[in-house]
Design a protein that fits this description.
136 residues; alpha+beta; Double Stranded RNA Binding Domain; four-stranded antiparallel β-sheet; 46% helix; elongated
Length: 136
């Protein structure tokens, strides 16, 4: 998983996010949290299009390097702030993982997965993805 520096600006009810290392990758939201979640989804979409076009996904630059960018410095001077947006790309190939969980938790996972008509693996993967993106 890569983490990209993003710029957030706006006002209550209308926030925008730009990811400088992914040219043209932007998102919006009514709250900062929603804008950042949308930015994570936009980063995935951006990367998928780049890969489909045969392009490579740029490596994220360190925050101190991004801050020195003229356009970024200007945005920061105009009240934008820096956030971090994860890029979680599916590879399309499953990988086995051996997890040790409390038996009660495992039973609860199985029950919740069944209620949602998911496999245990799909449930755990979606829960992990939600948790990763919630930390944005």
């Amino acid at each position: 998983m890569s983490r990209y520096i993003a710029l957030v600006d706006g006002k209550k009810g209308a926030y925008g996010v730009v990811i400088p290392d992914l040219p043209g990758c932007t998102a919006m939201g009514k709250t900062i949290e929603e804008a950042l979640r949308n930015a994570a989804s936009a980063a995935v979409a951006w990367a998928q299009v780049a890969l489909a076009d045969g392009d490579t996904i740029p490596e994220p630059r360190p925050a101190e390097v991004v801050r020195r960018d003229r356009d970024v410095a200007r945005a920061l001077a105009e009240d934008a702030f820096i956030a971090v947006v994860p890029l979680v790309l599916d590879t399309g190939r499953p990988a086995k993982a051996n997890l040790s969980l409390d038996a009660g938790l495992l039973a609860a996972i199985d029950e919740a997965a069944e209620a949602r008509q998911l496999t245990r693996s799909a449930f755990i993967a979606s829960a992990a993805r939600e948790k990763i993106l919630a930390d944005v």
